[in-house]
From TrEMBL:
PANTHER family: ZINC TRANSPORTER 10, ZINC/IRON TRANSPORTER. The gene is LOC120251129. InterPro entries: ZIP, Zn/Fe_permease_fun/pln. Keywords: Ion transport, Membrane, Transmembrane, Transmembrane helix, Transport. One of its GO terms (cellular component) is plasma membrane. It is a multi-pass membrane protein. Belongs to the ZIP transporter (TC 2.A.5) family. This is Zinc transporter 10-like. It comes from the Eukaryota. The keyword Nucleotide-binding does not apply.
Amino acid sequence: MDRFFSRATHTLIEVVSESMAGTRCGIGDEGKETEECRNDVVALRLKCVAIVLILLAGAVGVAIPLIGSHHRMIRADGKPFALAKALAAGVILATGFVHMLHDAEEAFENPCVPRVPWREFPFAGFVAMLAALGTLVVDFVATQWYARKAEVEEPEEEEVEGIRVPLVAEGGEKMHIVGMRAHAAAHRHSNGNEIEDDGESSRHARHAVVSQILELGIVSHSVIIGLSLGVSQSPCTIRPLIAALSFHQFFEGFALGGCISQANFGKIHVMLMAFFFAITTPLGVGIGAGIASSYNANSPRALVLEGLLDSISAGILIYMALVDLIANDFLNRSMKYNVHLQVTSYACLFLGACSMSALAIWA
């Protein structure tokens, strides 16, 4: 029995070692076509253009909902914002299903990758599933943590009917904030106004968690796509990627900015999240350009790592798009009682998904 386990362990180590080899694999027809279009000087110029354009597209996309959240046309509770967010949700969903998951499958199915274990099992879908389930757990735990934190950090006074009301009684005993809110809600209800939702802190907690997990999923695959463009020395490959990735970053930035604007973060926190998103893909392009001469994109190691990271990103983005963006927005009360908003939102959702899917032709 000991000999069996020893042999099995040795075989497993050999398989993993072989699959993570850094040696270059043979170049197929597609690789030969890329070599024929190779021009290092032109490729470097295009990469500089790509860094600027992708940076601007991402920065503008994430900034629009953040800057315009207090304006009538694009505020977070307005119809234009809801339609734009539905469009962006479609873009993110297509990014996960059509781009990331497909790229992961291609990486694992590459002939350069050893058949055992990577091509004997659907690792792309399996890892994406685990990433989605892991995101569910993180989503739940983080939401509970934010909600408890918000309850503990309630202010010592609250605005009720336009008046700042202290929550500390004369004897120093703290009044229960839920009671104050219930009294205010009952007063507004008696005047015919809408009752305030007691779960305001829970909604802010959800938005905070959604924005941060969404940024994690977006940033993880932004590094991959930026690196892929940066290591390429073929202008034929880089030119369509610049337009595709600029479009990609703009709408992903818009979706992320919308989530951040609803989370009520502090200004520094918002600026850091927006900056980190905008800079990630250009940074990946820059790193790729710097290591282009030594980086071996066709090695088993690079392909396996690419497949794993793309699968993880796909699982995160698919979960976030379906659960926290689409389901959350399309099943809420404002959508339920507004048929026109339903129709236009679905149209924007499908438009965003189909438009991002069409980019798969070039990227």
